[in-house]
Specification:
Length: 482
């Protein structure tokens, strides 16, 4: 049987398509690099295990064009195509999907957070007549069932969770949602043999960096985040031993020495984090690998950060979000300004590089709130920062708040953290928020003291100088966001 399946990120702007909770815009971010396409890698692994022929291509990150895609379609002749989409790129993604359908006649499967138990209002915004299946959950748990049904005429499609299928009237009907796999160790590692591992790199050294997903789900209640909806409130952890096996595979089989540990919060379970760090320290890879991870500022302890540093952590990303305790409380962050300051002090004490994320433009925010955040950013003094404008994802509590406040300008799709669909706050115009964001980014990175600090770092690590120059030029000459 001819059972060829193409897995792809389509040509176009570079987005974190495998990061369903935020789907970051890489091109307009200050110093963020594209992470590996693990969502497709997981799908490739389970499909290959069931003897499907797989072709995987990240067209956006490879900087390939529609012409390249057409050549690959003609050469590979897939019977099914899985496309990873984002809220921001969905309209262009569908155009590409329709083009693929016209050229190949393949079954079209779209995968993305937008399709997690969507209502009819959302689906009505999209031209899905040439699309056959929609995946809203963790794709590797359902792609084989979809392929078996479409290509092998096997199985009961209605028994596959977290997807939408077409009925006889060509309307999409949802199967059972809010179902997740607990036994994460049973999922095979992403099939990196199909991935171009060289294009996913550390932002500073440009060395290849693998993404390893250590857990799924988040117990927090942040009103702007999709994670609790699409991944569940229960934190599902892989065993530290299983994560260690994937690290070893990356190192020995693919020569990868740098890692991003992907989790909604890597430090949520301190005992688990310390155990993984202890495994790294006791392994033959100790002092041969480095990693980065994200963390909440609460809960967090100094000894967890110390363990991470000892095991080879070169940076940690904190979602500080705001310098206003009022805003932190209203977004249900579960932390306050004091927690943020404490986490930053610990990181500075450990000489652990920090990436700080902040947000501006919640409906209730005034110039006073923005000034508090501006001051907080400079007080924390992270090595790298990003300031996102508020983006109310459809299905979040924030979306409902923004809708009720009357600050949503257009539909919930086609937007990102730098090009949002809100008019501003109840007190500030969107133009003022854009100017606030741009001025902070400029003022922060162009400080003489900051530049001198980075140049001193380059004296000890000359290989990072080209990256710093590139990011600096991007900040100085990059186009305005908004």
């Amino acid at each position: 049987m001819d059972e060829r399946i193409m897995l792809m990120y389509p040509p176009g702007p570079i987005y974190q398509r495998g990061e369903d909770r935020s789907q970051g815009n890489i091109e307009d971010s200050t110093a963020t690099s594209m992470r590996a396409c693990n969502d497709l890698g997981y799908c490739a692994a389970v499909l290959a295990r069931e003897n499907y022929s797989v072709f995987l291509m990240d067209y956006q990150t490879e900087n390939k064009t529609i012409f390249d895609l057409e050549v690959d379609l003609d050469r590979f002749m897939p019977k099914m195509v899985l496309i990873s989409v984002t809220n921001a790129t969905i309209f262009e993604d569908i155009k590409i999907a329709n083009h693929i359908k016209e050229l190949s006649g393949a079954y079209i499967v779209l995968k993305g957070a937008i399709f997690f138990d969507p209502d009819e209002e959302l689906l009505s915004l999209l031209d899905l007549k040439f699309v056959d299946y929609l995946i809203g959950g963790e794709a590797e748990t359902c792609i084989v069932g979809i392929a078996d049904h479409a290509l092998r005429h096997m199985g009961d499609i209605n028994s596959i969770h977290n997807i939408l299928i077409k009925d006889r009237n060509c309307h999409f009907v949802a199967t059972k949602f809010y179902c997740w796999v607990d036994a994460l160790d049973s999922i095979p590692f992403p099939a990196r043999r199909y991935m171009n591992n060289r294009i996913y790199v550390r932002p500073d050294t440009q060395a290849p960096m693998a993404t390893i997903q250590t857990s799924r789900g988040c117990s927090a209640s942040c009103i702007y985040c999709l994670s609790p909806k699409i991944s569940g409130k229960k934190v599902r952890l892989r065993s530290p031993e299983n994560v260690m096996l994937e690290i070893e595979e990356c190192y020995h089989k693919f020569g990868i020495k740098n890692f991003f540990f992907k989790a909604d919060t890597f430090t949520m379970n301190p005992g688990w984090t310390k155990k993984l760090c202890a495994l790294i320290i006791s392994s033959s890879l100790y002092n041969k690998i480095e990693f980065t991870a994200n963390s909440r500022t609460n809960p967090l302890s100094f000894d967890v950060l110390q363990a991470m540093k000892d095991a080879g952590c070169f940076s940690v990303a904190f979602g500080f979000e705001s310098g206003s305790d009022e805003t932190l409380k209203r977004i249900k962050k579960g932390s306050d300004v004091a927690h943020n300051i404490q986490a930053a002090k610990w990181a500075h004490k450990l000489n652990l590089k920090m990436y700080g994320f902040f947000m501006a433009g919640f409906p209730w925010e005034t110039r006073e709130h923005l000034e508090q955040t501006r001051k907080h950013i400079f007080d924390i003094d992270a090595d790298f920062i990003e300031v996102h404008l508020v983006l109310p994802y459809y299905g979040t509590e924030l979306y409902n708040i923004c809708h009720k406040s009357g600050v949503i300008e257009n539909g919930p799709l086609g937007n990102d953290y730098f090009h949002t669909n809100v008019t501003g706050t109840e007190f500030l115009a969107q133009k003022e928020l854009v100017e606030f964001r741009n001025k902070i980014i400029h003022d922060y990175y162009i400080r003489p003291g900051y530049i001198i600090k980075r140049l001193k770092e380059c004296l000890y690590k000359p290989r990072i100088l080209p990256s710093y120059i590139r990011y600096g030029m991007k900040i100085i000459f990059g186009r305005d966001k908004g």
